[in-house]
Amino acid sequence: MSSPIRSPDGNWWDNPLASTEKKWLGASIITAVILFGWMFGWMHIGDQNPTGRTYTTSSAQYRKQVAAYKEKATRTEQGLRPAGRDVYIAGLQFGFDGLPVVLEAGREYRVHLGSYDVQHGFSVRDEDDLIQQFNLQMLPGYEWVVPMTFDDPGTYRVVCNEFCGLGHSGMQGKFVVVEGGS
Ligand SMILES: [Cu+2]
Hints:
Elements: H1 19-42, E1 53-56, H2 59-72, E2 74-75, E3 80-81, E4 86-92, E5 95-97, E6 101-104, E7 108-115, E8 120-126, E9 133-138, E10 142-149, E11 154-159, E12 172-178
Parallel strand pairs: 4-7, 6-12
Antiparallel strand pairs: 1-10, 2-3, 4-5, 7-10, 8-9, 8-11, 11-12
The structure holds copper (II) ion (CU).
Copper (II) ion is lined by residues 120, 160, 162-164, 168, 171.
């Protein structure tokens, strides 16, 4: 009787491959090769690739850009109101420079994401509906410009979802989205 823990009798390792086994091996090799090739197709077809553009920068350079942006923005009780469509946000241990920011619903902004020190996460979620959320990354040395439009007014929480040090769990900010034109 065959058993999963005892070797089968005889010289079983010398048996030739059964034809069904050969067919399945062949099918899996062909599938693997097709999937490998499809990686290159995937880069050009479909919406799964990151949106926006990424630029190389340095932490010092990005710090200057954020400072210049904040200089022009208006300070309100709820947060910064950007002067134009560009919004700068930087991750740092342990917070988000540039948040909270007040944006208008229905208006497209160019949100610039970067980091002053290490890699941080940028997870944005509707305060009342945690299902609606997205996750991006903030990387030192890169400035990622992401087009972003909030459809509905409300408060959107931002948390870091990339462990970045001891204060990581308190790293948060928010978008305050107000009615357009207000
Ligand atoms: Cu973090």
